Amino acid sequence: MRPRKERPENEEQDRDFVVALARGLELLRAFRREGEALGNRDLAERTGLSKSTVSRLTYTLHRLDYLSYNPDTARYQLAPPVLSLGFSCLAGMPLRQISKPYMQEMADSTGMPVAMASRDRLSMVYLERCKGTNAVTLAIEVGAHIKLATTAVGRACIAAHGDEERARIIEAIREHEGDNWPNVQPGIESAIEDYQSRGYCTSFTEWKRDVNAVAVPFVPRDGSPIVAFNCGGPSGTLTREWIESDVAPRLIDLVRRVAAVAP
Question: Which DSSP string do the residues of 38-94 spell out, in sequence order?
């Protein structure tokens, strides 16, 4: 089932909302994996747009060099100019530069990777990552997306939002998960309680069966989107006991140090 997209309220009555632009961006979002090639029919199914609309959008985006086209397969791929948007976004985030030394320090001391991520609808996108010294670590790089509902970093982001926005996010997850919601709901609710009482959120083999992780959110004072910092690794190494006794306090301290110097 295709997840329902979050939309501005009453967009049809919003004179400032440019529907054509929104549709073009939705089409670019439809490319989910690195190097994925999609035809107009694939894009229509993923976006819910008509085939005629998709055809006009792909033609326009191809003319603007945001999509490349293979005439032999009649499929499109994201083209290099799309990268300029992403890199411009990252370059405009001083929090990445501020946080990286603290993240690397923790990665070196624990041996586990430390990352910073922000919400992209029902997933979290990695904005920065520092590798640890442990040979067995998670191969997740900047730009990668992971689930919002079952990861520690996603739960931390959910927990840090205000009541109304958090309720909207949880409702979107509930609709997306469908029959699986009863399996997902307890982890989110527990994470919110943990954040309020302990200052951090966890995921013990819930995202992947052999992965444990802990995360702490950071709410920028300048109104930028909420981010969360996490430390994750193999469950056999990054145990619950180690997280609760040492790794979680280190991560809380990392976020406090970042907050002290962030604009």
Answer: B-HHHHHHHH---HHHHHHHHHHHHHTTSEEEETTTTEEEE-THHHHHHHHHHHT-H
